[in-house]
Amino acid sequence: MGDRKSYVVGRHADGHEIKLGASIVRVHNGNGYVYAAILRDISWRIELLDDLSEQARLDPLTGQLNRRSFLEIAENECERANRHGTNLACLFFDIDRFKALNDCFGHSSGDIILQKFAELARCDLRTIDSFCRWGGEEFVALLPQTDLESAILVAERVRRTVEDHTFALPDTRTAKLTVSIGVSDATGPGIDISEQIRQADDALYKAKQQGRNRVIASIGGQPEQIA
User: Fold this and answer.
1) pTM over 0.90
2) Measured on CA atoms in the order 157, 160, 165, 169, is the torsion positive or negative?
3) pLDDT > 70: what percent of the chain?
């Protein structure tokens, strides 16, 4: 029990499980030494640590992964794809003209838009896909075992979902918005996750240049395919 994160699981009199910290003490009982275990209910402390750990992994506004946690997962997915020779696709999202939306409707409405966008995009992804708020109005998704053609289909599905959605804002106001998406893919071995994210970002930049509200994929490291 030397590890502060260690605990034993016990059962309360009413049947529910509790987490117990144990201290072992050596005492003399007159005939010799015996050992006694002192158990304390530390459920609250374990739950607090779990909550803090979860909060450290997530973006506080959208509830999605933050960049640091996403990159940790991405490194692991990259290693797995390299080891097994499988595909790995990356989607880079940017909400179109978000600053103008923020200026028009206010920052509280901007927060609502970010939250709803994250919810919509996450619903169009699989459970095994990782999704994070990269920063500001930018989001990134990593799709294991997904080739370029399939990744483009996913990106296009998200693009249409966002385009078709009416965003409800305070005071009965509504907003319509679009998203630009850059797509990259790679096949192991030899995947460099930083390079793959960069290629998706370059494709996204090209999508913004070509008029926004579109999906552009990186082929051979060059953003040249419009979906």
Assistant:
1) no
2) positive
3) 89
